[in-house]
């Protein structure tokens, strides 16, 4: 096993082994770009170190051999007194990660070699500046000295001299600062700053390995779902110097604008500076375009290199570079981060440039990005004062009055106020407040905190971990860094997509992307619609590519019409229980309370025309497309008054001796229907089997509606779906009755309705006996919400607020199985049921309804197992279309 790779030996595909930085340094080296020579120690070496507490023995020799080669190539030795080779030691994992060790520059400098460096460069000041930087970085990141101590000493030196920037310090000042820094190291660590160059290097390498497991890095990995066992690589890179004077400098750049995707010159440059100076804000940088004036030759070369990189990576790249006395050096590149909007624009621009094809373009965007573009957003131009920033935990733009406890949130929202619930952190007791609030803001916790998890589950805007905002729940106030105090009742605006928190009401504008899907904006050519145009094109690519069809979960004509505008190819789930609410609830009550067959028939007869009318509308809105209607599913108690409320009402009435007959009967029924586990109780197909005439009425309503549409020259395509089937016998009984009703309706109306009957697969037993069930079902629709609930034994209405936060924090799963399909458990049942079902009935139609149908990762899974369609809420349809395209590309 080889633990060390020269930059000439790697390439960009080796990110697992060499980390992102190392792999791309190698790639640039091999492209012939000016990269300072160096080598990369692999992630494998890191893994050995972390497992055993020591570097693998071979690694030390390999490092020595590579260092020898580097020294030979450079014609000087590491830390050589009269002409020192200096190196940087740079961490570089596969994914870049906060909390990992910072880079240490200028390794190899010592009391002995600082004079040599000065003499070689002919620049005393530069040598002492480099040395003080080394002690500062090494002291802080390798030896763990509080960085503030160095900062303070530096500030004090500047103050004493009456200057404001580091470039105003001369060689003598810096030499004194070096002595001071060495003193800080000795005092804080009980040892002197290491003078031996190789020891400096080895200690730095080891510190990089160890930084893999800092608390911050671990937390970040868990939140971003980065595996904990990848390890980091370490890059040792010969130094080039941007701090040699005004003809030197350092900069960062993008090959195109990461916010808009436009081509152009984007970056910052700082003269006479080293390393992070440019991003640390210690002095004012100049726009990259100014480099043309400062150093035309380097500028031209840089532009050319950026062109090369973009053509080579076929994507937007970001880069770090340094100019040493007019000579340009490339220090880093990677495929750059971008906004969601830029991702769409860049993908289409690259297609136009012929750099990538449509299939590749689809891989450059994601459903999550599209979802982000569909949220309404703040009109940033009109934004008021920015109070602070937190973690963008759940997207959206929310405005409301600040409240600091859930009780107030509920109370105020009941009286019609919009509120933002502000807490240090939330816990399950805050649930009601979170439901009542427009958005949630916390000052603690990351993406897996209670607030974040629950808010995402509810689709509510949330900014969490805004640490700079001081939340004082006792005094009901929040203090922002500038000293601005927000009291209860003050209006704040929070942006769950950017994590920004504003004072006052920021106006909200609808997303142009939604306007486009709604048909209110066309993919026209003017500049404002550039994003819409890009989305339009990407959707076309996806639609051309995907195999999965996309349907909507919709219960009424209005939702159905929107779903159609959003590209739905049918309805995968129409929940008929939603047709039993409102003023019809009373009729359902009558049905439940019926003592005699006659009473029940009367109740059903009253419901029939209402149901039928609903279906007529729905079939009309979805004319020509399939509509899957699910027969009544939820437990009946959901249609009755709450047991506690009703008990109290009856008890009070009894005390006044005027108890109402109907309430007493209701209470009796509520008691009779009360179940310990209603989700495992009398619901779904069980209702159809226990309540005579209920399913028959629903089937009749569907059939009559279909017949009416047919006779009106429509093209209704209804599919009748039986929920919660666990065994084929249940389905057979319901089917027999349904077939008979349909035959009656057909005879009476002179139509051939071609209604199909199928079932949901949402119980483990149904999945396990799918082969048998398929004998009585023309289609399966996987009800993955209930299936997840029953496979895991998780109550989906409770878990998110109770123990899921703990599970996520402990890394038991990276994402809730109710959000993304659990491939190994629930997924394998789906996979087997697909196989068994198709073995029985090769033309069995297969789909999924349930939240997973609109979840990007899950859509890929459903594509893989060969379903025919996914069905999701109307707003998720574009996401599902895009992801289905990506899955097939
Ligand atoms: P990060 O991953 O945090 O960007 P880097 O390893 O890229 O850290 O280094 C931090 C800074 O130091 C960057 O600005 C980088 O360009 C600069 N740097 C790193 N190695 C060298 C080197 N050998 N010569 C000059 N500057 C360097
Ligand atoms: Mg860098
Ligand atoms: Mg269900």
Describe what this molecule looks like in 3D.
Helices cover 45% and strands 17% of the residues. With 889 residues, it is α/β, with parallel strands linked by helices. Among the domains are: 249-335, ATP-grasp fold, B domain (D-amino Acid Aminotransferase, Chain A, domain 1, 2-Layer Sandwich), CATH 3.30.470; 376-509, 3-Layer(bba) Sandwich (Glucose Oxidase, domain 1), CATH 3.50.30; 546-579 and 614-629 and 702-888, Phosphoenolpyruvate-binding domains (TIM Barrel), CATH 3.20.20.60. Strands 12-22-21-14-15-16-17-13 form an eight-stranded mixed sheet. An eight-stranded parallel beta barrel has the order 24-25-26-27-28-29-30-31, surrounded by seven helices. Helix 23 packs parallel to helix 27. The two termini are 36 Å apart. The model has no long low-confidence stretch (mean pLDDT 92). Adenosine-5'-diphosphate is lined by residues 36, 88, 90, 103, 105, 237-240, 275-276, 320, 322, 331-332. It is an enzyme of class 2 (transferase). It catalyses: pyruvate + phosphate + ATP = phosphoenolpyruvate + AMP + diphosphate + H(+). The active site is at 450 (tele-phosphohistidine intermediate), 849 (proton donor). One of its GO terms (molecular function) is metal ion binding.
Q: What order do the helices and strands come in, and which of them pair?
A:
Elements: E1 4-6, H1 15-30, E2 38-41, H2 43-52, H3 57-74, E3 87-93, E4 104-107, H4 114-121, H5 124-142, H6 147-161, H7 171-189, H8 197-211, H9 215-224, E5 232-238, E6 249-256, E7 263-271, H10 277-280, E8 286-287, H11 291-294, H12 296-313, E9 317-324, E10 327-335, H13 340-352, H14 358-363, H15 367-374, E11 377-378, E12 386-389, E13 391-394, E14 397-403, H16 406-414, E15 419-423, H17 431-436, E16 439-442, H18 450-458, E17 461-464, E18 470-472, E19 477-479, E20 485-487, E21 491-495, E22 500-503, E23 508-509, H19 512-517, H20 530-545, E24 549-553, H21 557-565, E25 571-575, H22 585-593, H23 597-621, E26 626-630, H24 643-655, H25 661-673, H26 685-690, H27 694-711, E27 717-722, H28 728-749, E28 756-761, H29 764-768, H30 770-773, E29 779-783, H31 784-792, H32 804-809, H33 826-840, E30 845-849, H34 856-864, E31 869-872, H35 877-888
Parallel strand pairs: 14-15, 15-16, 16-17, 24-25, 24-31, 25-26, 26-27, 27-28, 28-29, 29-30, 30-31
Antiparallel strand pairs: 1-2, 2-5, 3-4, 3-5, 6-7, 6-9, 7-8, 9-10, 11-23, 12-22, 13-17, 14-21, 18-19, 19-20, 21-22
Helix pairs in contact: 4-5, 5-7, 6-7, 13-20, 15-35, 20-35, 21-23, 22-23, 23-27, 24-25, 27-28, 34-35
One magnesium ion (MG) is lined by residues 723, 762, 783, 785-786.
Domain PEP-utilising enzyme C-terminal: 533-884
Active site: 450 (tele-phosphohistidine intermediate), 849 (proton donor)
Protein name: Pyruvate, phosphate dikinase
């Amino acid at each position: 096993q080889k633990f060390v790779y020269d930059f000439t030996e790697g390439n960009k595909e080796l990110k697992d082994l060499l980390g992102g930085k190392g792999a791309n340094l190698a790639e640039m080296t091999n492209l012939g770009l000016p990269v300072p020579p160096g080598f990369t120690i692999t992630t494998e070496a890191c893994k050995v170190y972390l497992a055993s507490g020591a570097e693998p023995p071979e690694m030390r020799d390999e490092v020595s051999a590579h260092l020898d080669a580097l020294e030979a190539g450079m014609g000087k030795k590491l830390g050589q007194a009269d002409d020192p080779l200096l190196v940087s030691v740079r961490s570089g994992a596969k994914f870049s990660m906060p909390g990992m060790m910072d880079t240490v520059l200028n390794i190899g400098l010592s009391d002995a070699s600082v004079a040599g460096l000065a003499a070689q460069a002919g620049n005393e000041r530069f040598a002492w500046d480099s040395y003080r930087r080394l002690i500062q970085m090494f002291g802080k990141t390798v030896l763990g000295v509080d960085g503030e101590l160095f900062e303070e000493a530096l500030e004090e030196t500047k103050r004493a001299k009456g200057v404001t920037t580091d470039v105003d310090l001369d060689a003598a000042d810096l030499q004194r600062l070096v002595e001071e820094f060495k003193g800080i190291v000795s005092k804080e660590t009980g040892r002197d700053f290491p003078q031996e160059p190789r020891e400096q290097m080895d200690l730095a390498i080891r510190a990089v390995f160890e930084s893999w497991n800092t608390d911050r890095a671990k937390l970040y990995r868990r939140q971003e779902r980065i595996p904990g066992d990848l390890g980091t690589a370490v890059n040792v890179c010969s130094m080039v110097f941007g701090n040699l004077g005004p003809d030197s400098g350092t900069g960062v750049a993008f090959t195109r604008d990461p916010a808009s995707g436009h081509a152009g010159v984007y970056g910052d440059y700082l003269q006479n500076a080293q390393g992070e100076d440019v991003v640390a804000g210690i002095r004012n940088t100049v726009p990259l375009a100014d480099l043309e004036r400062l150093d035309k030759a380097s500028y031209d070369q840089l532009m050319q290199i950026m062109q090369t990189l973009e053509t080579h990576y076929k994507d937007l790249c970001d880069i770090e570079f340094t100019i040493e006395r007019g000579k340009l050096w490339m220090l880093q590149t990677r495929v750059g981060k971008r906004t969601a909007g830029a991702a769409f624009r860049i993908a289409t621009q690259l297609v136009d440039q012929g750099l990538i094809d449509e299939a590749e373009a689809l891989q450059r965007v994601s459903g999550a990005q599209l979802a982000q573009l569909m949220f309404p957003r703040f009109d940033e131009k009109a934004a008021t004062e920015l109070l602070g920033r937190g973690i963008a935990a759940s997207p959206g733009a929310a405005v409301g009055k600040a409240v600091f406890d859930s009780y107030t949130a509920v109370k105020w929202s009941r009286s019609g106020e919009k509120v933002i619930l502000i807490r240090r952190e939330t816990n399950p007791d805050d649930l009601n407040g979170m439901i009542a609030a427009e958005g949630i803001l916390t000052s603690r916790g990351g993406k897996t905190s209670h607030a974040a998890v629950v808010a995402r589950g509810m689709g509510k805007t949330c900014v969490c971990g805004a640490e700079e905002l001081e939340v004082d729940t006792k005094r009901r106030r929040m203090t922002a860094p500038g000293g601005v105090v927000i009291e209860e009742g003050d209006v704040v605006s929070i942006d769950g997509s950017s994590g920004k928190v504003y004072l006052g009401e920021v106006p909200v504008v609808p997303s142009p992307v939604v306007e486009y899907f709604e048909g209110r904006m066309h993919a026209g050519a003017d500049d404002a619609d550039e994003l819409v145009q890009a989305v339009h094109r990407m959707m076309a690519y996806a639609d051309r590519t995907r195999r999965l069809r996309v349907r909507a979960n919709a219960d009424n004509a209005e939702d159905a019409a929107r779903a159609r505008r959003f590209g739905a190819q049918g309805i995968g789930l129409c929940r008929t229980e939603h047709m039993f609410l409102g003023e019809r609830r009373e009729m359902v009550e009558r049905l439940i309370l019926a003592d005699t067959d006659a009473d029940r028939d009367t109740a059903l007869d009253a419901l029939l025309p209402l149901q039928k009318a609903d279906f007529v509308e729905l079939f009309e809105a979805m004319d020509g497309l399939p509509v899957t209607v699910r027969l009544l599913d939820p437990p009946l108690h959901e249609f009755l008054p709450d047991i506690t409320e009703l008990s109290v009402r009856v008890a009070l009435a009894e005390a006044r001796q005027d108890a109402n007959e109907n309430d007493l009967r209701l209470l009796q029924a509520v008691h009779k229907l009360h179940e310990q586990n209603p989700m495992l109780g009398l619901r779904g197909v069980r209702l159809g089997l226990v309540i005579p005439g209920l399913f028959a009425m629903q089937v009749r309503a569907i059939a009559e509606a279909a017949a009416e549409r047919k006779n009106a020259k429509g093209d209704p395509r209804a599919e009748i779906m039986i929920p919660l089937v666990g065994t084929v016998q249940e389905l057979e009984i319901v089917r027999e009755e349904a077939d008979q009703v349909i035959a009656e309706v057909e005879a009476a109306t002179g139509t051939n309705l071609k209604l199909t009957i199928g079932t949901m697969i949402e119980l483990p037993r149904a999945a396990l006996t799918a082969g048998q069930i398929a004998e009585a079902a023309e289609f399966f629709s996987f009800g993955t919400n209930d299936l997840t609930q029953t496979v895991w034994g998780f109550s989906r209405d409770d878990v998110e607020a109770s123990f899921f936060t703990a599970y996520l924090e402990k890394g038991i799963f990276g994402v809730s199985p109710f959000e993304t399909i659990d491939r190994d458990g629930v997924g394998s049942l789906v996979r087997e049921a697909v196989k068994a079902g198709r073995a029985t009935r090769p033309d069995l139609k297969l789909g999924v309804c349930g939240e997973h149908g609109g979840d990007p990762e899950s859509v890929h899974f459903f594509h893989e197992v060969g379903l025919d369609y996914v069905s999701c809420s109307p707003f998720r349809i574009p996401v599902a279309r895009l992801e289905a395209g990506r899955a097939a590309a």
